[in-house]
Amino acid sequence: MKYLFIFIIFTVTTIAQVTADDVQTITLKNGMKIMVLEDHSIPNANMYLFYKVGSRNEYPGITGISHFFEHMMFNGAKKYGPKEFDRVMEANGGANNAYTSQNITAYTNWFPSSATEVIFELEADRIANLNFDPKMIESERGVILSERSTYLENDPMEQLWDQVQDVAFFAHPYKWPIIGYESDIKNWTKEDLENYFRTYYAPNNCVVVIAGDVKLSEIKNLAEQYFEPIPEGPKPRDVHTVEPEQLGEKRVFVKREVPNPYVMISYHVPETGSDEHYALDLLKSILSQGRSSRLYSSIIDHKQLAIEVGAAYWNAFDPTLFHFYGICSDNVTATQLENAILTEIDSIINASVSENELQKVKNQKLMRFYKTTETINGMANTIGTYELFFGDYKKLFLAPDLYNKVTTEDIQNVAAKYFTRQNRTVGILQTEEVN
Amino acid sequence: MKRNLNFTLTITLLITVLSITTCAQFKLPPYDKFELENGLTIYLMEKHDVPLISISAVFNAGAERDGEYSGIASFTTEALRFGTAGYTKNQIDSLFNFYGSNLSTYAELDYSGLSTTIMKDNADGLFPIIKEVIASPTFPEEEITNRQQRWLAELDQAKESPRTVIGSYYNKLIYGNSPYGNPVNGTKTGIEKLSGDVVEEFYNFNYSPSSTAIAVVGDFDAETMKSTFSDLFGDWKGYPIKTIGDTYYNEVPFTESKVYLIDKANATETTFRIGGYGIKMNNEDQTQIDVINTILGARFTSWLNDELRINAGLTYGAGSRFRAYKQSGTFYMASFTATKNTEAALDLAIKTYNRLFEKGIDEETLTSAKNYVKGQFPPDYETASALANLLTQMYVYKLTDSYINDFESKVNALNLDRTSELIKKHFPKDDLQFVLIGKADDIRDVVKKYGKVIERDIAEDGF
User: Residue A97 and residue B163: Cβ atoms within 8 Å?
Assistant: First the structure.
């Protein structure tokens, strides 16, 4: 799984069975906020912990440390030493994972509800008393280098994405890869990790979501027993760097031996909390969701110019990028595919989208919502995502109105406003550079 | 990410899910199974938590039937939705998408399938399309040719990702030219030979109501749905079945270790699998074998991940898996490591594996694994689509309800003595088979010690 595909947002046009009132909130004295959704359909529950720290909080020299830290959270604390976190959790029937994005770091625990207290104890131990064993740091460094190497080895698009990000951003920390530069990975120190822990892993910088076969009263008691004694930390400094306006098209070439060229075209767009988010999100679906989408039907089905094409636009605290990407068919040049993608973009700017297309993507949002509410994991992740990126989980339940308000004109307007030549970065990856 | 998801229990095919889990409380929810006069088997299960209906259909048309047209089974199942008597490809795609759905098709070695999830309010509009896609596809030549061209490029593209293609090399090494050695997505030579006529002939030969099952799970009334599906599919005739049952596959024992070295000149890491034969899908020991495999390589604290990743820092993830088919099955350990660490990682994987035979498993570890597989089970059957897939898997592999309902008692019954017996019986010990994809110039000499080396270039067609 790739980091960059984590934050596909689950938004809705109609709310099903779950309502805002079903989600209960507990705020502890140390500032930690916990949201609870009781759901007794299976004898399982989960606990998602979202820390407001990601690669945007780094700086050159420690790039990738947020992700490295994610790994170190499993490598030993005070009561439970190295390897014990996983051993105890699995012996109690639980499993876990974690992920890091540009914006946040999330820890996910899935367990039979009988193990709920054990999970609280394990989490509290590492939030309060994480320990950095030098041996574990070195071993984990090797793991991260392997993780970095394997994603570059297996996916040329990842390699291109790294380069396009770097070129598109002049100033903002979204420019470096989440996993970090190889030389930084090799050189972090124990002190860097300790500073990071003190700065970002305080309970007041964390949002917790628990969904499943639990009782609110039980969670409240456990939270007060295990999480509340952990002291509040100072508020981390804001990321104040603002990406300046792009002043002209940028282009980047990556040389790699591949059968067919890869193309990426990326435009600066506003952050997730922007009013224009809903129009941009629907536009992404119109362009790329399903075989009847603009990009697939035109470029793959009709023109046969690509074997893969799509658009991506992820949640972000700060102004971000809206990406188009594709892999050429045999005997198709990168220029041909680039022009075909630009033609599709221009057709939306010039002729807008149809009411039928708009209704289609609203229906797709509804389906996505139902699928999300079908599982406790879907709900936990969605509640947390809204709380973090929209400022309040309750906005999940306002989303229907906000999506329904989007008109075909709104979609045409955001396309015209942001998909300009001046605002774009084009990346090409292929075997040989062509003049 | 903390771990390589390749080895977690949650994202792989349902076969894996089936092979690993159950929970204390879980029993298969009630369902209705019936057969129409034309032989079509239908399963219905009500589930009302969300207004969705999931459909899974399976056909006795897996890639083991490819023959000279490598890839035809996979191609044909996708081509079902290229057009029907009543709908063009464009209409099929547009209607499903408009209602928020996708119609998915896929092939495995043993069978091929179709699946979708729709909102219940759209059932009347979409059911007839599903029926036509299954029962009256037209395989338009133009659509076939277009897809064929892209498919060929995709086969080249797939080889950019060793982890995507290593399974095809591994099955080729284990099964050679017998049907389970067929790469599901085919070879360029096989795909180039396809035409509308050839695809249609494959369909006529292999798709028939009497060898098909459809499972419908979701927010509906079973009585009404029974009538709807009986009316919908009752007139599907199909062509007379020209094959009787399954082909019988006889495993040929290995007499030496082989190293299938796939040269990818620009590789920076070596991706590998090590193993041999495993078990068939309906093996009565499967549940207990999977508890043991959880200890070896199917959870984060598994021996392989602990040694290769946590202790040695050689890889991002290491694990093991039994991949069961109707007539046979494979077992393999899998990981990847920087080219320079190839020997260290392979040696450590083998050494760790040999602990199974030399030291065996202790009581504490066994108890932990039993708790783990039981605790992780319920979410695997949380959705309508997971349950629909389960029902059709039961059809394909002739599994009874006890496969699910007796899982807990089978897990609980596993003790240390039984563990030793199962290790001896089912985990291949000698003549291990190796597939390595990496930079051959740098590892050719190193890997000779593991067995007889057979080398080929990754750019060569096929596997």
Answer: no
